[in-house]
């Protein structure tokens, strides 16, 4: 639960000066339950400082073609309509990205991104979907991550959020240029505890 709470609160810190909507706790519960549902097919990466405080998070999920992805729930976008022949594609979703507002470290952003896209960059037929804050999207493009906008933006967790698709070809350049960061990374894999499932 602490991980999802971090993601929600940091999004509002970054984009709404910490001003929280009345129903923000409902958002935390809903996202937590969503991540529990995804846990069998996902990996969550967390960076912590020396005292154990979370500094950044990201999650990568391999789609099983059954669970409803956030891009479907939030934007009504069917990944299969984007990818075409599903049998030829390995479909992933990247989400729960957040970095503590007080942390100004571009390398941390790169490390988290490299961790998340590593499995996608192992197969040439892979494609990833994500919901990106417009500011983050600009940073990603500037870093060399190629992302295609696939729908209209909406306001989500306090910011303008844009649905994007990223192919193997659009990610491999960034991955190759930054994969050395994995050797020095202090980012850990997080497992959700199914026994602590919350209900919204």
Quick recap:
This protein has 200 residues and is of the alpha+beta class.
Please provide a written account of the structure.
- The protein is of the alpha+beta class and 200 residues long.
- Helix content is 39%, strand content 26%.
- The chain contains eight helices and eight strands, in the order ααββααβαβαβββααβ.
- Strands 1, 2, 3, 4, 5, 6, 7 and 8 form an eight-stranded mixed β-sheet that branches.
- The C terminus is likely disordered.
- The helix/strand order is HHEEHHEHEHEEEHHE
The total beta strand count reads 8
Mean pLDDT: 84
User: Regions with pLDDT < 50 over 5+ consecutive residues?
Assistant: 193-200
Q: Report the C-alpha radius of gyration, rounded.
A: 16 Å
Helix fraction? Answer: 25-40%
Number of helices: 8
Largest sheet: 8 strands, mixed
Overall geometry comes to globular
End-to-end separation: 12 Å
Give the strand content.
Answer: 25-35%
Given helix and strand content, the structural type is alpha+beta
Detail the topology: elements first, then pairings.
Elements: H1 2-16, H2 24-38, E1 42-48, E2 54-62, H3 70-75, H4 79-83, E3 90-99, H5 106-117, E4 126-133, H6 134-143, E5 148-149, E6 154-156, E7 159-167, H7 168-178, H8 181-184, E8 188-190
Helix pairs in contact: 5-7
List keywords for this structure.
200 residues, alpha+beta, eight-stranded mixed β-sheet, 8 strands, 39% helix, globular
């Amino acid at each position: 639960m602490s991980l999802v709470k971090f993601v929600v609160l940091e999004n509002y810190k970054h984009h709404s000066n910490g001003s929280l909507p009345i129903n923000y706790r409902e958002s935390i519960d809903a996202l937590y339950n969503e991540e529990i549902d995804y846990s069998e097919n996902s990996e969550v990466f967390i960076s912590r400082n020396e005292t154990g405080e979370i500094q950044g998070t990201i999650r990568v999920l391999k789609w099983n073609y059954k669970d409803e992805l956030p891009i479907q729930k939030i934007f009504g976008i069917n990944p299969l309509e984007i990818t075409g022949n599903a049998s030829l594609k390995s479909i992933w979703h990247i989400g729960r990205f957040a970095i503590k507002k007080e942390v100004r470290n571009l390398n941390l952003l790169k490390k988290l991104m490299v961790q998340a896209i590593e499995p996608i960059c192992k197969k040439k037929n892979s494609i990833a979907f994500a919901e990106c804050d417009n500011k983050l999207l600009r940073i990603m493009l500037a870093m060399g991550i190629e992302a295609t906008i696939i729908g209209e933006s909406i306001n989500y967790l306090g910011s303008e959020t844009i649905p994007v698709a990223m192919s193997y070809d659009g990610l491999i350049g960034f991955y190759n240029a930054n994969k050395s960061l994995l050797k020095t990374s202090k980012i850990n894999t997080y497992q959700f505890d199914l026994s602590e499932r919350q209900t919204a």
